[in-house]
Amino acid sequence: MLRRQKTGSVLCPSCGKLVGVQDKECWNCGRRNPGMWGFSSLLRKLGNDFGFVSIVTWGCVALYVATLLTDPHGIRMSGMSILEPSSRSVVLFGASGAIPVFGYGRWWTVLSATWLHGNLLHIVFNLLWIRQLAPAVSELYGASRTVIIYTAASIAGFLLSSTAGLVFGASPIFFLRGAALTLGASASIFGLLGALVLYGRRGGSSHIGGQAKSYALILFIFGFVMPNIDNYAHLGGFLGGYAAARWLDPLRPERVDHMIAAIICLAATALSIIASVYTIRFA
Q1: Could you report the per-residue pLDDT of 203-220, keeping only the tens digit for each?
Q2: pTM value?
Q3: What does CATH list as the number for 52-278?
């Protein structure tokens, strides 16, 4: 069942046309190594996203549970903040913001923070958006480029939010302050929306781009109305996802180096969480 296929035909991951498993290049779209070293059929069984949505879902759930179990006495239950982990727990596992990035020098948290969440409603809301948007982006860009976009949006979003927290942290206007401490998948979610908007602008589908633009606008407005929403992370995530999508070009087929870059992104994210746990120090 898990054996590497050495002979026969497979579907090209980029265009879906039938190619030989040993072909060096897809005859239809030009993708190099469409047989993916004989593992194309196995990976396709995971879906168009190659299991990325499941990785994000279970990774976020596992880390959320870990933040609760690490400091159970610090769990808060107030208003809409149901099962909110303590600040100590989320900083331990890699929350970002002006304090971790510039105060503690934990620059890698711009990668880890997108996998952490602040309460039960927070994680449920974000995972629902991911399960809706990530498969759509994978269908248009491919699984590897989706991972790259997701990661680039996290870096851009939390870097902008952390910098704004350092510069405008004392501002009396709440939506200009940036974040002293921030976390959540919403930066990457806005990156996926940015990728869909770019796809529409590139001529792939104006309907898809328009719908993504409407979603992003509604969520931006919601962020300015509600307190404790990291608007800078949303803005940075959108711009980061849009820029990454433009660089990757959705109208061209995925390449093998995209898969290598996606693996590096996932490995770097895992290492950022490990680094957060093993290098924690409090003032």
Answers
A1: 767 788 888 888 888 888
A2: 0.83
A3: 1.20.1540.10
